[in-house]
Amino acid sequence: MASGKTSVTRRLQSVTSRPQASVDALIVQTTGLPISRLFDERGEPAFRQLELETLASLEAARPLLVDTGGGVVNTPAAVDLLRERGVVIWLDEPWITIRSRLDRSDPEERPLVRDLGWSGLEALFRRRRALYAAAADFRLCGQDGDLEALAHRAMLRSLIWERRQDGKRS
Prior knowledge:
Layout: H1 5-16, E1 20-22, H2 23-31, H3 35-42, H4 44-57, E2 65-67, H5 76-85, E3 89-92, H6 95-103, H7 111-135, E4 138-141, H8 147-169
Parallel strand pairs: 1-2, 3-4
Helix pairs in contact: 1-8, 2-4, 3-4, 4-5
């Protein structure tokens, strides 16, 4: 949450011209409900199921840039899908950066911010780190560069991964 996934994905899309898919945006489009309302009315487990179904529905055969919600790592089947279909890049930001970004956002648009408070969010952040580390093919630290630099490093790592995969398929 608030690591810059959507911004980096948009930047990558502009650099590579590959199609982009935002899982959260697709869920909103499919259900007609904002994420906060889905959480309120159906709960997080139902949202995670929608997230998994949305990921499964994405075309696997073509190069696609996908950004997910930060909690996708809580669903092992979703992580498996992401890893089977492409390279998983973890944008690792320090808690202080995440908190600063969340502090500037609308808590009503982020149900976990509204519901957990700062101490709960920090605990969630710490619990998810191991899941991100296990899921990721690559880790990029946001504090090591600006959006442009992150996007270029993500692109290079993705290309290396794709080339290795092509070699395995030969």
